[in-house]
Amino acid sequence: MTTLYGISNCDKVRAARKWLTSHHINYHFHDTRKKGLDEATLRSWIEQLGLDKVLNRQSTSWRQLANESKQNLSEEHAIKLMLETVTLIKRPILKHNDTLTIGFKTESYQELFS
After folding, report:
1. 10 is catalytic
2. Residue 8 banded pLDDT, cuts 50, 70, 90
3. What residue spans define the domains of the chain?
4. What fold does the segment set 2-108 form as a domain?
5. What pLDDT does residue 82 have?
6. No. of helices (H) and no. of strands (E), the chain
């Protein structure tokens, strides 16, 4: 089973979807903005990849947070913030079988699906 997580208006998500479709890979798209994300899934991503890889500190959403929210950020508080504002999660996140991939790079996807 392959699931792509992200938001539909993200350029990287669109590129990943286009690549998957053009390579005839069946996948489910989970729009985190429209459908949300459950805490267990987010925690499993952080457990597998680490908080620094999952939390998007380059996003507009991050820059708009109050400084108090960004300083001395605990994992618990980061999870709460990401569940409230899913655009704080890096994207896309691709789950293929038991493998998680963050971001879209043609080479990574080719290697994963070869």
Report:
1. yes
2. very high
3. 2-108
4. Glutaredoxin (3.40.30)
5. 95
6. 8, 4
